[in-house]
Amino acid sequence: MNNFEQLKQTIEEAKQAVFSEMESILESCQEDVNKFYEKGNKSAGSRIRKSAQLVRKQIHHPTIRQHINKIEDAAKALRESIS
Questions:
Q1: Predicted TM-score of the model (pTM)
Q2: In 3D, which of 23, 45, 22 has the Cα closest to residue 34?
Q3: CA torsion, ordered 41, 34, 15, 64, to nearest 10 deg
Q4: Around 35, how many Cα atoms within 13 Å sit in the side-chain half-sphere?
Q5: Alpha helices in the chain, H assignment, sequence order
Q6: What is the tens place of the pLDDT at every residue in 44-56?
Q7: Which pLDDT tens digit goes with each residue over 8-26?
Q8: Non-local CB neighbours of 55 within 8 Å, separated by 6+ positions
Q9: Alpha-carbon distance 1 to 49, whole Å?
């Protein structure tokens, strides 16, 4: 496997690790979004805000930074192998 393929694989692994949890949170609150915007249910709005806070916490989680560092390191290795 060349460095470019390794970089692509690292990016895919990071995407799965980072975005899978956020996607599940957003999918679970889809029903509340419909209730809030279509029916005007105010308590659904509170549940949406709670879900948004969970996504925010997920974004700022330390493991996210580790995945980003893996991508940066793989890109650096690719640049070094090209030059």
A1: 0.64
A2: 45
A3: -10
A4: 13
A5: 3-28, 30-34, 42-59, 62-82
A6: 999 999 999 998 8
A7: 888 888 888 778 888 899 8
A8: 22, 25, 26
A9: 44
